[in-house]
Amino acid sequence: SPAFAEKFGLGREALPEEIAAWNLDVTPDGTGLPEGSGDVLTGEEVFAEKCAICHGDFAEGVDNWPKLAGGWGTLAHEDPLKTVGSYWPHLSTAWDYVNRSMPFGQAQTLTPDETYAIVAYILYSNDLVDDEFVLSHENLASFELPNAGGFIIDDRAETEYPIWTGEPCMTDCKTDVKVTMRAAVLDVTPEEEGAAEGTEAVAEPETEAAAEPEPEAE
Amino acid sequence: MSESFKSNPSRRAFLRGTAAAAAGAVAAGAARAAEPDPLITEVQEWASGLGDGVDATPYGLPIEFESDVIRRNVEWLTADTISSINFTPIHALDGTITPQGCAFERHHSGAIELRKEDYRLMINGLVDTPLVFTYADLERFPRENHVYFCECAANTGMEWAGAQLNGAQFTHGMIHNMEYTGVPLRTLLEEAGYSAEGKWVYVEGADASSNGRSIPMEKALDDVLVAFKANGEALRKEHGYPVRLVVPGWEGNMWVKWLRRVEVMDRPVESREETSKYTDTLEDGTSRKWTWVMDAKSVVTSPSPQAPITHGPGPLVITGLAWSGHGAITRVDVSKDGGKTWETARLAKPGEKMALTRFYLDTTWDGGEMFLQSRAMDETGYVQPTKTQLREVRGLNSIYHNNCIQTWWVRENGEAENVEVS
């Protein structure tokens, strides 16, 4: 251990029961998983009861609520769909997050077996396992999600900072300035309370706005 | 989308402004008034009667005439208002300190109510002695004071695909800047005796979302603060009362509110908030993770769509904010012609590290249209890029970390609009 100059003698030792109650995080290698298991069919029942109202019967999402399945192979598309199946790198994250923070509004009410079953059902909904599949603390860490290799560590220091550093242009930096996109054309900004109706003063669009309002899901 | 989302947010301010301008003398220079001003020549009620007593307002709110300087949300951005975002009215503020009452909020399971008496902070994991602190314990450690910006990783995120929201509040208002008082996280880690194997800390909140994030030990020992006061008083409920993490220069998601646990670990957790979210997808479908630092950025706050020019040609103050997660802002340039030519603005004070910096360009408006832009530079020599430059490297689907140069199209009537220009 590093040598510390000074201690203040503040706080008290955490008891094992206290650490166990709060230290719930699970790392990609499965460290932190409690014993237990759950199969797809049980997961389907639990999901229908506790999750489907927001996430849909097939984890496909209701309204603007997050989609947990689908979107495979869309990450390089114009409009990628990022789900547990298409995007998430580690199954440990799904278990950890469901266990600690779901269902929304009733977090930390699931038993370990229910969480295993729900996560098994999410895998099934993503066509990653068949309906016989049983997920447990023994096989969770070895289950590789499709996008496990899809992430790189922040590389801005190599790919961006060198090219955007130095004395910038001050005069005659470009010859032509044309409006290519206008927020007023999309017209999705909330209005101030009491604003006068029908006073839109902005002229007709000169350029077609290509952008759709895009919900930034989280 | 409801009917109330249909009009331009600047409309009311614009109409109010032009009406006021029309009623008063607007000629340039110190013109002579045609008639005496009754606000001067007649005794006004406030100059004769009495105002409120000192017991009227034990804790005051802004005067009613400032009622439009408020947080706003954008309904279509999220599925509900609990795991959602609202926006600081930066178009109406000046200086650098954000009033807490209108400083933006971002929650994942709502703003919880946590009494100091019920508050506990646990330090566990790779430490000699896992510890539990009460709130009162925290106040007995040596304190520091620092001003830092907290910018949501998704600030300006809706603008990746194009100009969408019409106002600096909406395009750049997921940010606040406060003076924090707290204890260095390093002090608490040393109190528990962190192990040399501890390469990371995992931090989480007391709320249902927990918002757990992994932070490398080097940063945890450097400048991360366990804060309990902001702008002189206790944190607001919605900002993490009674204790939050302050992570200077890094994306707002890591500023864990209602902080309840710090675990020293030999690896990152790769939690939901650093895998599913707060990872930045590039054009080829791969995604950057651990994009912690917020790069240099700026925006003109006035004139802007919600703060149109209402006074006609003549002297004009162009003002805005600049900031960088890499250190101090050293310079801000302003263009009125969409980036053809630039003038260096005046910094109200020398830039401070990882804090908002106010800039001014005191100029004369000839009444013609302008394409206003600002371009920040920080002490590393980094120059704020254009959106085109960002897109060339990242494509359109990064969601987070959009620090592009913003353009406001100011028309001859003084109204301004969020646009993109070639």
UniProtKB/TrEMBL annotation, chain B:
Entry keyword set: Metal-binding, Molybdenum, Oxidoreductase, Signal
InterPro entries on file: Ig_E-set, MoCF_OxRdtse_dimer, Mopterin_OxRdtase_euk, OxRdtase_Mopterin-bd_dom, OxRdtase_Mopterin-bd_sf, Sulfite_DH_SoxC, TAT_signal
SUPFAM superfamilies cross-referenced by the UniProt entry: E set domains, Oxidoreductase molybdopterin-binding domain
Alphabetized GO MF terms: heme binding; molybdenum ion binding; molybdopterin cofactor binding; sulfite dehydrogenase activity; sulfite oxidase activity
Superkingdom, natural source: Bacteria
NCBIfam families, per database record: sulfite_DH_soxC
Protein name: Sulfite dehydrogenase
Native organism: Roseovarius faecimaris
